[in-house]
Design a protein that fits this description.
The chain is about 60% helix and about 5% strand. It has about 700 residues and is mainly alpha-helical. The strands form six sheets. Strands 1-2 form a two-stranded antiparallel sheet.
Amino acid sequence: MELEEKQKYGEPRKHDPTFRGPIQNRGCTDIVCCILFILAILAYIAVGILAWSQGDPRKVIYPTDSRGQFCGQVGTPLENKRLLFYFNIMKCASPMVLLEFQCPTTQMCVEKCPEKSMTLLNAYSNKNDFEYYKNFCKEGVTNTMGIPTILKLGLCPTMLISSRPFTRRCLPSLGIKGGVITVGNNSKFDDGSGKMRDAKDLLDGVKNATVVIEARQTVMKIFEDYTQSWYWILIGLVIAMLTSLLFIILLRFLAKIMVWVMIVMVIAVIMYGIVHCYMEYAALKGEAGANVTLKELGFQTDFSVYLQIRQTWLAFMIILGILELIIILLLIFLRKRLLISIALIKEASRAISYVMCSLFYPLFTFVLLAMVIAYWAVTAIFLSTSNEPIYKVFNETACEYSRQTCDPANYTTSPMKAQCPDSECLFAFYGGETAYHKYLIVLQFFNVFLFFWCANFVIALGQMTLAGAFASYYWAFVKPDDMPAFPLFSALGRSLRYHTGTLAFGSLILSIVQIIRVLLEYIDHKLKGAENNCAKFLLCCLKCCFWCLEKFIKFINRNAYIMVAIYGKNFCTSARDAFFLLMRNMIRVAVLDKVTDFLLFLGKLLIVGLVGIFSFFFFSGRVKAFENTAPNLHYYWVPILTVVVGSYLIAHGFFSVYAMCVDTLFLCFLEDLERNDGTPERPYLMPDSLRKILNKKNKTKPAQ
């Protein structure tokens, strides 16, 4: 039965006495996909050039007045007028309207926001006040003009309100005095028509500004924290890098001891986290406001507030407790497979010691990915800002032309103005009616798709290169004599010379699934307000299925690239061979390979935990020895979180080489078991440690 099951997944590899690792005599694979990839790259470059010629990032950087001019743009008459002023802020429904440039009132660029409140009527009677008032009027206002003429032509606002700049826009300087909302220290203001109104009426125009302002202040504090602690963060990341490097060097010589030390230390670090959370939880007992729930507290821009609540520490304690329990249970159930995994890790350490430059290959991948991300981001910005200014009719009374497009150049003499005298032709937003503007969303999706394709190609190139280098180590009968002089560079050259099409094919399949997931997220966003539960359920199922499909394709691609690096066949053949090889050894794959991945994950967890605990005690000032050394910060969690995330990325970079090495050696190990039987004619190439664990022996020739 077992034999039939194995034959179902293809015939095992036959012994080949001439086989010595990655085949040197190979040809180009998946040429059609290689040509398609090159054409797609050329099209991507063309889209970038088109976007750069049409786009204007100034639309993102600078506010735009009612004429579509940029406030504060260098080299223009508005260079010194960096702020945007609204004639009547109460016509704006919310700050989101302001940020989207669609407030139905005249907007103009000014040097300073109004520092005092006054009406046009009051200012007109005082020469000095009127001169000040004209700073917030359009050009052409003179002292001889009457107030009716000024208002009829829309040259000046009816009133000025004491304001402050926020995101380069003048918003009323609201405050609270004695529980009453004030503007410029006054609870009332003149709306320009002689009526005194409460300052709270301005909240309709800036009702959400408080949250946004607090968020902005938080961002500024975080930025200040980074300026104060950046060099300590760099030191923390260097410590993480040295710890990762030391850990890998120790694995080379003390693999078994280091794995057990790693397991014990991970359990101990998580246990310390549980104890610390409990101590904080107990210390807050009886403190005022400590029993407030997270739901009652809601969102706070000052994240340190959450650390003053008992429920926060209880949640941390429960999460760490569950994580500790899962790790302990996994170790108990998988204890018998740990020895084989340790032997694989030890062999991976030995392989890396012969290809030491592989540890620094992730830097090359990082540089390529940074270039791909930068090109995508710049192209996306230029595409999103390549629209033309659209002007619409805004009015206070009923008008049949309301919100229709208009031309500001001749609007005063147009029929629209004649029928709607109080209307204005104002800048509304950026858009366009040309074929280019109609298909902008298609170009944006093309930009995203090519970003996925190029990023997956770069990752695939790294996987195939490392697989080729480590495969040449495993199949070398005498190490390092039978290995190439520069195994990593040889593998990189083979991958680019012969298998660019295969890399493009595998990354294309993965990118198609990823772009479908993006489309599903886009549809989900568009249907947020829908009440159709059936559609929501179907969409959720599709998102889940495509997430699983993406994980499966990544697994198939990874093993296919290893087979391509060894045998030089095309993607489909290599994917089939890798899949059948793994299915013929399903038990070993399900247990052994995943246990090794789990141990490597514990290694990353240990490095992150150690560096995280050290940074916590340093930046929080909990240790007296560091009190005078640690910088004074608004939020000490900012550098801690940065160091923890950076440490994980560094550890992941080092251990990703390890993981690829283990996966390559594992496939080679399975092929070794099928190709050879331990006889003098067909000796195993696996190391002695693996042979002992599997009860395999290389037989010697009988004495003559």
